Amino acid sequence: MEKKVSIRVVVTGGAGYIGSHVCKLLVKRGFDVLVIDNLSTSSGRNCRYGHLIKLDLAEEEKVLAVLKEFAPQIIMHFAAFIVVPESVERPLMYYYNNVGNTLKLLSAMKKAGIEKFIFSSSAAVYGIPTEIPVSESAELRPISPYGESKAMVEKILRDMALAGEIRYVSLRYFNVAGADPEGEIGPLYNQPTHLILRALKTAKGEFPYLEIFGTDYPTPDGTCIRDYIHVMDLAEAHLLAMEYLLDGGESTILNCGYGRGYSVREVVEVAKRVTGIDFEVRETGRRPGDPPVLIARTDKIRSLLDFRPRYDDLYAIIRHAWLWENKI
Ligand SMILES: NC(=O)c1ccc[n+]([C@@H]2O[C@H](COP(=O)([O-])OP(=O)(O)OC[C@H]3O[C@@H](n4cnc5c(N)ncnc54)[C@H](O)[C@@H]3O)[C@@H](O)[C@H]2O)c1
After folding, report:
1. From CA 301, how far away is CA 294, in angstroms rounded?
2. What is the pTM of this model?
3. Each residue of 287-318: pLDDT tens digit?
4. Is ligand 1 within 6 A of the CB of residue 168?
């Protein structure tokens, strides 16, 4: 995408894992980026691109003042709590932040006269899908408060768009992994729950062993299969979605994945090869609510946005994540 002079973008949650990668791409392409983040689940260390304002989205009046002053053409909304099991234990906290504070942001956005919005949704809205690969038109049956919170926001966005109040793209991410190939930024979670991160941290000796949850699924090797997307390809998808909205595109929902999956055992194998470390793996029982297979249907994003991933390669994903792990 060519540099667009004086396009201003607000990125909520831009200090977090995915948002910080998107900020890097935006700034590198010449966009003017303002990050709103309360640093509740991130440190600010990844906020190397764009200007950071430390602010909680719950503070609607302050958010409104920032939006009026910066006057962005578009908002990308990453800020949320993201740990599925925690959402089961603390549903109110999740609904309050992921839905309540999104409502406040949308309300401030409307008052500030901004109408374009990109939302970080999740494959968790599908729950346990009955069709694989799962398409955007599949029924939404989330099985956790986290997934429910994303589905609720999507409903709100749909109704606002129908009323002509916004135009939006909701991006349903599948399993996001990897790190900036240049090694400048990467995941810094307080609670690393994602498989690839856990595997690499186990290789580093931060965990004594890696658990495989369930080896009796109806899959070729008995372990769950997921569609891993490199965080930098996901960042590119955000820039394409932004360009689409700025060019007048209609509101839409798009899966973000590669359309193919790897099993837990395959991921572990590649992690061992990339790191050269034969870390300990323990097989335990299934976790409640894990779908056996979760793979995105991707023809919509490929045709609508001409999305052409650069890093559709599990080795590259794990290599870049390992590069980062060795720097932190
Ligand atoms: N990581 C994944 O695999 C994945 C998959 C699907 C969807 N998502 C979605 O992508 C988005 C970003 O996820 P991430 O992995 O980068 O998470 P992250 O925790 O690294 O980033 C979230 C950021 O939002 C900020 N934040 C949270 N609540 C806030 C509030 N009320 N006000 C201001 N800032 C607030 C946090 O401080 C953090 O910097 C989330 O909406 C998440 O649900 C992530």
Report:
1. 17
2. 0.97
3. 888 899 999 999 999 999 999 999 999 999 99
4. no
